[in-house]
Design brief:
There is one protein chain. The protein is an alpha/beta fold and 294 residues long. The protein has one domain: Rossmann fold (3-Layer(aba) Sandwich). Helices cover 37% and strands 27% of the residues. The protein contains twelve helices and twelve strands. Helix 6 crosses helix 7 and helix 7 packs parallel to helix 8. It starts with a strand and ends with a strand. The model has no long low-confidence stretch (mean pLDDT 94).
Length: 294
């Protein structure tokens, strides 16, 4: 694995058995995440984005494939256990639904402090309290919410608390699994800008999962488009939007709304013919750093 690569996923497969058949949720996904990079996983619901994230986090026992984090093969249970302390500290996730991701019986200050306690990062209660307050300020969460419970906060405030918890251990990699999908549009922009600022300030690697390509275009350095459990196109984000090559990518980009009523009135949304999808294809580099599934 290259020295500047922090995460490497190789031929990842995750099948679920259902009524004597298998649902191929993830079917041969491969990609690398470089240090300090923002990689977006994009695609419609059901394409395998979130399942990929859960596999990386170790929440699913994968069917086959390999996952390397900082050079260690964490898809191997023995290797995972041997490096569990480092993984728990340096690999964090922000879930889509903050209401179910936060313990309803814990105060916000204790939710944010929990990873710090678990990893023995703060040596005293005073240091812990100061760290929690600093994290709340960094994520734009007013200190008056310290002693409140998650159900007393709005969706955006809960997500800020979840983000504060995720950066509390100064991780090397954060996965954000559709973190703005359940929020109001006005709050979505605030959370995306917050992610971008925190990534710039802390320098962590970042996997941003979304189905909204306008957000993906704004936040990511590189984008992988998923369909039917596979990556069908992957390229630097600017290149992908400027020169989409796969029919599915073209269809997704054609549907992105623009703040131009005349253009919107006359634009043509492309349709992808799913019968053209090659179940036995593979990801091929057709241009420098631009991969297409054929």
């Amino acid at each position: 694995m290259e020295e500047n690569v922090i995460l490497s996923v190789k031929n990842l497969k995750q099948y679920f058995e259902f009524k004597s058949a298998y649902v191929k949720a993830v079917n041969g996904v491969s990609f690398d995440v470089k240090k300090g990079e923002i990689l977006a996983l994009a695609g419609e619901s059901g394409c395998g984005k979130s399942t990929t994230a859960k596999c990386i986090m170790g929440l699913n026992r994968i069917t086959s494939g390999e996952i390397y984090f900082k050079g260690n093969k964490i898809s191997d249970r023995n290797v995972y256990r041997a490096h569990s302390k480092d993984i728990h500290k340096n690999l964090q996730i922000v879930f889509q639904d903050s209401a179910s991701a936060l313990n309803p019986k814990m105060r916000i200050k204790d939710i944010i402090a929990e990873p710090l306690r678990a990893n023995n990062i703060c040596t005293s209660q005073a240091a812990l309290d100061k760290r929690v307050e600093s994290l709340m300020e960094q994520t734009g969460l007013d200190l008056i919410y310290k002693d409140r419970y998650p159900y007393e906060l709005s969706g955006g405030q809960r997500q800020r608390a979840a983000i504060a918890r995720s950066i509390s251990t100064s991780p090397d990699l954060i996965i954000a699994d559709e973190p703005i999908a359940s929020l109001d549009v006005s709050i979505q922009a605030q959370i995306v800008n917050l992610f971008k600022r925190l990534q710039r300030e802390h320098g962590f690697s970042f996997i941003f999962i979304a189905h909204d390509l306008s957000v993906v275009k704004y936040i990511s350095d590189r984008t992988a488009v998923m369909l039917k459990g596979r990556i069908v196109e992957m390229a630097p984000t600017t290149e992908l939007f400027k020169n989409p090559l796969h029919g599915y990518t073209k269809a997704l980009i054609s549907a992105v709304p623009l703040p131009d009523p005349i253009y919107e009135r006359n634009k043509k949304i492309l349709e992808y013919d799913f019968s053209e999808f090659n179940e036995n294809g593979r990801l091929t580099e057709v241009l420098p750093e631009h991969f297409v599934y054929k």
